[in-house]
Design goal:
Elements (H helix, E strand, L loop, with lengths): L7 H13 L2 H8 L3 H15 L4 E4 L2 E4 L1 H29 L2 E6 L1 H8 L3 H7 L4 E4 L15 E6 L6 E7 L2 E6 L13 H5 L3 E4 L5 H8 L11 E3 L2 H9 L4 E5 L4 H5 L4 E2 L5 E2 L3 E7 L6 H14 L30
Parallel strand pairs: 3-4, 3-5, 8-9, 8-10
Antiparallel strand pairs: 1-2, 5-13, 6-13, 7-10, 7-11, 7-12
């Protein structure tokens, strides 16, 4: 019997390029070169006998025939991936495939994972690459930990941690005659901003009843790690989520400038598709991670913040971006 179907690698390259609108982004996702994607698509087009893409500016857009073909083959690709993932789980025993935002992963989750492994030694943890605009529905991933405040109706989200903002400084800023004692003392120092969340300082000032305009940043940094490093070097003071600097506070690398946390809607959530029932392994992880967060967790002001509330522009909301 002659086989008329193309190779699975060609179909993966085509589906990724169609979804992302870019051969280079598809190459990054599949860990191949852009030339590899181009050649795979070219072989597929030769096999089918028609063009799948047309160039529009800097994007590769599906032709009408390409769109029809994608609709026909994409469910089959997804089914094959899901079946393969399920087969691997049966072979290796209980597995949990997670995708975690890098900041909460490195600053908070990783130091706690040995406790999970000790409690559930039979569970193999596996971590998928982080994708900022992930739709949170990939069949091969069990759950995601993402930053945000509200979620669409098809996503079940459990709030974990991250709603408390605190000001941090170098420990020496709390010593001597010029020590920080009030909010005004704090604001007289150079303010360091997080590039993705420049409103953190203004939010904290408003909660303290300060009506004057927020001072301009002395510098801004793209990650909490860099921001904390700058504070530890004595560059100024910063406003961060407390859960991300617990180790730095415990080691006296930085200090709480004032014991005046501010609670915000944005936090880290454990997410999964609402229509997908959690496995026993995922439920074990859920109970464990919520237990780890419980001493620091700030409950939502309204129940719907931790439930499935759809807000316009999901995925573009600045509160739902970042790491």
């Amino acid at each position: 019997m002659r086989m008329h179907s193309p190779s699975l690698s060609e179909l993966h390259a085509f589906a990724a390029a169609a979804r992302l609108g870019s051969f280079s982004l598809a190459a990054q996702e599949l860990y191949v070169t852009q030339g590899g994607i181009s050649r795979a698509v070219a072989r597929l087009e030769e096999h089918l006998g028609f063009a799948l893409f047309e160039r529009q500016g800097r994007r590769n857009t599906l032709t009408a025939a390409g769109q029809t073909y994608l609709q026909a083959v994409e469910p089959a690709i997804t089914a094959i991936e899901a079946a393969s993932a399920a087969a691997r789980k049966r072979r290796h025993g209980p597995q949990l495939r997670l995708s975690v935002a890098p900041t909460i992963f490195s600053h908070w989750l990783i130091p706690r994972l040995p406790d999970f492994s000790a409690r559930h030694p039979g569970v193999m943890l596996s971590f998928a690459p982080y994708k900022r605009d992930d739709a949170l529905n990939a069949p091969e991933i069990d759950a995601w930990i993402r930053v945000g405040s509200r979620w669409p109706a098809d996503i079940h989200a459990d709030y974990v941690i991250g709603r408390d903002l605190v000001p941090i400084c170098h420990p020496r800023e709390l010593q001597g005659p010029q020590a920080i004692q009030t909010a005004q003392d704090l604001l007289a120092r150079p303010l360091l901003f997080h590039t993705n969340y420049p409103g953190n300082w203004a939010c904290w000032m408003q909660a303290q009843g300060i009506t004057e305009p927020c001072p301009p940043p002395a510098a801004d940094f793209e990650t909490v790690a860099l921001l904390t490093q700058a504070v530890a070097a004595g560059m100024g003071v910063a406003m961060v989520q407390r859960c991300l600097v617990e180790e730095d506070l415990a080691s006296d690398r930085v200090a709480l400038a004032l014991n005046a946390p501010v609670h915000i809607e944005r936090g880290y959530f454990l997410c999964r598709p609402a229509g997908r029932s959690p496995s026993t392994t995922l439920e074990q992880f859920r109970q464990w991670v919520l237990g780890q967060a419980a001493p620091r967790a700030i409950p939502p002001q309204k129940l719907d913040l931790a439930q499935n509330t759809l807000t316009p522009g999901f995925g573009k909301n600045p509160l739902a971006q970042g790491t």
